[in-house]
């Protein structure tokens, strides 16, 4: 069942004014909420556990299990926080979802908060996407007016307040504990774990933090059942998900398909690599995941399959690069991003990314030797797994994987005394059929 | 009874070396009337060098004092200010003393100097008739002001910050002479 | 570093966990961090952000070690991740657990490489500043770069640079290039001092310690951040470029500025103290000291320091330099000729010096007219000290404060008057201690202790203490501690009420004076009714007990107290005065004290520096400052804090040697001429286990005074000395002075409205003796009360207003 698109989350995106409550309700929206409110919260957690839904934010941790960690005997209030700080380069699934159908998320938030018995939920949205924030705020307002939020929701006796919070422009705030710090009004920097957020998260209270897509998937599970969800995808990676294709693709965009589909299938659906060019390398889940090449076209895009290929499924942000792209240049750009976004808390990431950028910039200019490549790899070795959070790890992924697959291209820079590529040719406005 | 040789030759033979030497070039040095130059790297009296604009190279770091095996050097640092600047950067040597009663002229101090402020000259006439005068103060040790140099305190004339001085990326001075 | 506390040694076996570090099994108490467990077996894991007294943060990643935890089958499994890689763990955030196997840099190549990688990263943006850096030579970064770093750099690119040092306060300078962003300073300020005026700002490699420009880093404890900075990023203006570590001779000593007896380390170079650091004493100050203890030491080398004895020339009437023998003879003859003589000392004496004054008065001068209280005092206080404080030994301790539920403060502002005590109270308060303060308003210190205010106008403290016995909310009981400040002496009935409160509730009581020598002076008998060791003068058995050691008899009539001596001198009943370190402006009536010194026929002054007293004296005898002599300070706890002579080259004589010289000339030798001999005699003397004076039972002043209302138009004056103020012991420490809090008169919002001025405008406060003009501010005072700092920004309340706490003053808007 991995050969066709399965639009669930994106099913209503083409509806007229899909972001309004009316449009959403016409398609059966908020029916799942009524079903859920009729269930025991514990039964909801079991339902999500049974469905096999795994976190869509990158790590793939089972969502139901995460909810189960909330200690219900803790006297503090419980919180649900939705991580909508989508800033990973190449990743564009949550923002389109919130743009096209914010009510899917809002409904998911209400059901999820009910399941973990939280009376306060937050959606932490990336601050730069003002249009999305407005849509989300309007959707929340509509939900309040319709009685889906607030006191005693639909007579169930359950109260929920939902706050849409705009971030202040830091990639690190996508890290869940940094997000909590930011939400509390501090500088976003990752926190020491333990204690884990499930025990002491927001305001030192039990907190569940989930990705937008994970939460948005919950209503469909409630509506259609765990076995329906489990019927999609592979054995360990169940359900459908949004794949975001970008870069040198004929028709870039979000493709909702069961987990386990391959890039070859997705490229077929997307009209292939841009005309006249061939695939050179691609990221399976944003820039923090090691790059893959054309030889990995048939790798099943689920958590296990991509892991076996030496990368990570991540956010399923498939950035596709054709042969006009200089891999050194692409990696340098990514590394500059990490240097800019490193929060500065820990030494390996703070100083390491600073150094990586300078080394890569030098190599791109052709001022280096093969010994520098070894130094570069050793620098990555000293960052990977040594930094406080995963940002440092992610910063090294493109470098190590690109040297693994394209060492010759790095060497070509030294021999050429500079970049052998014409950067103009990799642009989308380059004349069709141009060659490197 | 001594032989003829013993009677006449031997007494004269005893002067053989004397007579032969009379016709050789003398090795006696007429110091202090005539002074001979030392070997170029002879360890003589120290000198505190200047940058080409006259600022002192010494930063008062005391590494020379630390290196000194005879404990002959005493340094006290102080802060340069915008109004009163003696060296590029933050710090200068306010007090600098070398006690030549203790100094063994080993040169470890000049190896320790991170700014090449302290070097040794070939001057070896380090004698005096009292102890106090053999403690050389900073003004005794500082290199003379060469043409183009200005007596500190004054602002950095060669660059915008101390980095320019240390990297040697300063503007050429009027007189480019290595102090 | 402070690691093992007593609790650590007392834990039962069951509370231990056993782990293996580098192949060595070690058992540590539960909750111990791996980095400290490693210290137990002598393995030093390099670290920067870790500090035993600060909460773990795990920021620098220097302490990475390889860790294996036992799996379900009991076999240790190395902690992994990202996939396929060993993930070294930060040992400063990891608590030791049973069966854990830790391999540090010594036994694990992976940990060693990880540490070297972090060190290399730390160094890439660190400037090659070591030759000009104050930390050079004692720098953890230098040392650990040598022990755990690569020999050579691979970084050939451009370092991050910042403009060189910026002032984050008048005293503290920040060099951002050198900072390794360990956050020790910001965490100290927030967690320990409660002054979060510095914080990390910006991100990535541009992250830096920052301040809010309108609120510089003005904390009484800012110097501690300089000491715990693992690099030279924070330096002090006072020590900047003064010396290198190898120049310094370090001597452990005890701080002389307050009654806390903080352990300090004094570094001197060529006979000059150039810096003081906090010592480590878990029982007293842990690793923290106040800025006053740290930076206040140049008073001893001011230009007005007395260096030679001086006598008044008979012909010219001017003071002239004299030899010690001559000065002794002149002093002795003058005192003999003057007849009755009183002895006034300040509260800065060491225990040994105080004992010498005490014995000098009784034996050489044959009088009980001796008093150390150069401040407001009362007979009630004397009785309180005799009954409750003198010679009682170690009572309430710093550590006790962490073990009780409630601490009540009365007449005491710990942040200003006993900084180390404040830090310990704050530490305890963060763990749940309830602090209640009987004070006129919520001071910054009380707010930082999350304390509760019992708003009390000055003079009403006694009533407040009495009410506390029935206060259901505070509920003081045997698990509580009552800390009484010396200022309560000026409130009739307050000390009686405090003693009664302790008696009825079972709470423990401690008297916290402001000066380092006060408690020692009480123990040494520098009071008219008290002999050394708490022996009452009017107790024959006590006099006999003392006589067996002194070999003489002492007068049985209690003498005059300080105010009495002053009055008697003015009245001509006393001809001679021996004055040791008294500033007339500290006394309750500065004019009277000056008049007494003028009226006395013969005045002997023992002083450090030229003062009003030395100008008027007939013989001036220079004495040694704290760093120039050995001695003992007794803390408010009653703990003896002996210290040795720091400046061993100094020939300055301690007070006791000077007094011994005069006593010899008087023909009544003291029996000791050295600190050691005085100490020996003190220990031979021992304590007094006989009858004690009963606690005072003075009725409260509130019966005679209307509570919390103004007398006529005036406002009731509340005042105390701020920590960093015009004190003469801070002379010369200009950078430190600049970090002090400005003098502001505080009134309630209601009172301010009545004055018709805005907060921040100048007001003129007028007392019986004059007036002073200063800005006004608002605090949660009761209406009709005004608070002034007692000696800040050139305003001395005693001298300029002629008023003490509780007096009535008038306040008007505008300058006088």
TrEMBL record, chain A:
Pfam family, one: SLBB
Annotated NADH-ubiquinone oxidoreductase 51kDa subunit iron-sulphur binding domain residues: 328-373
SMART domains hit by this protein: NADH_4Fe-4S
Enzyme Commission number, as recorded: 7.1.1.-
Gene Ontology molecular function terms on file: 4 iron, 4 sulfur cluster binding; FMN binding; metal ion binding; NAD binding; NADH dehydrogenase (ubiquinone) activity; NADH dehydrogenase activity; quinone binding
Presence of keyword Ribosomal protein: no
Listed cofactors: [4Fe-4S] cluster; FMN
Keyword list, A-Z: 4Fe-4S, Flavoprotein, FMN, Iron, Iron-sulfur, Metal-binding, NAD, Oxidoreductase, Quinone, Translocase
The reaction(s) this protein catalyses: a quinone + NADH + 5 H(+)(in) = a quinol + NAD(+) + 4 H(+)(out)
InterPro entries: ComplexI_51kDa_subunit, NADH-UbQ_OxRdtase_51kDa_CS, NADH-UbQ_OxRdtase_suF, Nuo51_FMN-bd, Nuo51_FMN-bd_sf, Nuop51_4Fe4S-bd, Nuop51_4Fe4S-bd_sf, Soluble_ligand-bd
Enzyme class: translocase
One GO term (biological process): cellular respiration
Family: Belongs to the complex I 51 kDa subunit family.
Purpose: NDH-1 shuttles electrons from NADH, via FMN and iron-sulfur (Fe-S) centers, to quinones in the respiratory chain.
Name recorded for this polypeptide: NADH-quinone oxidoreductase subunit F
Species, as recorded: Nocardioides iriomotensis
UniProtKB/TrEMBL annotation, chain B:
EC id: 7.1.1.-
A GO biological process held by the record: aerobic respiration
Primary site of residence: membrane
Alphabetical keyword list: 4Fe-4S, Cell membrane, Iron, Iron-sulfur, Membrane, Metal-binding, NAD, Oxidoreductase, Quinone, Repeat, Translocase, Ubiquinone
Protein's organism: Nocardioides iriomotensis
Cofactor binding summary note: Binds 2 [4Fe-4S] clusters per subunit.
Localisation per UniProt entry: Cell membrane
Cofactors (names): [4Fe-4S] cluster
An example Gene Ontology molecular-function term: quinone binding
UniProt membrane topology term: Peripheral membrane protein
Pfam family, one: Fer4_7
InterPro entries the UniProt entry points to: 4Fe4S_Fe-S-bd (IPR017896), 4Fe4S_Fe_S_CS (IPR017900), NADH_quinone_OxRdtase_chainI (IPR010226)
Binding site for [4Fe-4S] cluster 2: 68, 103, 106, 109
4Fe-4S ferredoxin-type domain span: 48-78, 94-123
HAMAP family to which the protein is assigned, alphabetical: NDH1_NuoI (MF_01351)
Source domain of life: Bacteria
Name the record gives this protein: NADH-quinone oxidoreductase subunit I
Function summary: NDH-1 shuttles electrons from NADH, via FMN and iron-sulfur (Fe-S) centers, to quinones in the respiratory chain. The immediate electron acceptor for the enzyme in this species is believed to be ubiquinone. Couples the redox reaction to proton translocation (for every two electrons transferred, four hydrogen ions are translocated across the cytoplasmic membrane), and thus conserves the redox energy in a proton gradient.
Automatic annotation (TrEMBL), chain C:
The UniProt record lists the keyword Transcription: no
Low complexity composition-biased segments: 697-710
Region Disordered, annotated ranges: 693-713
Domain 4Fe-4S Mo/W bis-MGD-type: 248-304
Main localization of the protein described in the UniProt heading: membrane
Keyword entries, A-Z: 2Fe-2S, 4Fe-4S, Iron, Iron-sulfur, Membrane, Metal-binding, NAD, Oxidoreductase, Quinone, Translocase
GO cellular component, one term: membrane
GO BP annotations, alphabetical order: ATP synthesis coupled electron transport
Source domain of life: Bacteria
E.C. designation(s): 7.1.1.-
SUPFAM superfamilies assigned to the protein according to its UniProt record, in alphabetical order: 2Fe-2S ferredoxin-like (SSF54292), 4Fe-4S ferredoxins (SSF54862), ADC-like (SSF50692), Formate dehydrogenase/DMSO reductase, domains 1-3 (SSF53706)
One Pfam match: Fer4_Nqo3
Swiss-Prot/TrEMBL cofactor(s): [2Fe-2S] cluster; [4Fe-4S] cluster
Function recorded in the entry: NDH-1 shuttles electrons from NADH, via FMN and iron-sulfur (Fe-S) centers, to quinones in the respiratory chain. Couples the redox reaction to proton translocation (for every two electrons transferred, four hydrogen ions are translocated across the cytoplasmic membrane), and thus conserves the redox energy in a proton gradient.
This protein's name: NADH-quinone oxidoreductase
